[in-house]
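Page 47, continued from p. 46.
Same chain as before, 245 aa.
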Amino acid sequence: MSGESVVAVVPLRDGVSGKSRLATGLTPSARRRVVTELARHVVGTLAGAAPIDGIVVVTTDPAFVTQTLAGVAETVLATSPARHGPPAPPRPASGHPVTVSVLDQRRGRPGLNAAVDLARGHVRAHAPAATLLVAHADLPSLAPDDVTALLAARTGPPAAPVVIATDRHGTGTNLLVLPAGAAFGFRFGAGSRAAHEAEAARRGLGAVVVRRPGTAADLDTLDDWADLPAPLRARLAGPGRTARP
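Result:
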């Protein structure tokens, strides 16, 4: 689908309350570092993926996001839900990372689905014909090839405008591809894979489910943490900071 505009959406709440289910195994400082390093990896991967033309990060802590993404991508603050700010410039011919628009969710509705909906409104205001790629910020193995594969999955067989990248359990949604202009209610949360499939069917939109190692691996629980290679755990949390006192 050459010539289309693809905008990635990354919800990133803040650096304090994230990854609470790791609290029994990681110190608060280690958890904050994990959130930071994961976000840098996911946004950096998206920024380096050829199909991506722009990135929108939705957060309750814009200062944290700006600091976190320093050196990974250029950020532009759009701090009011009612003010979308200027559209992100196109990818430079040199292939440098795309610009990241940071949206402040604090004055809008709380919650993950509300965050993604806020970002969709931002994209619709500037590029109503764009394709959205929603990605969680806790995917330690995500690679540019995964992004390309998800977008290519729309051509099938079977052809479908909605692509759901499920988690390793086959029940969640780690990434979601859909037209920005589509009438579609986000259903992130427990059982979101089935919920998103049902929503697509209700809207008359074809949906395909994809499972790849790079998209299925997320980091929510201590079991997920234990499954990561030791060098990756050390890089994410920092040496000597993985255990609570």
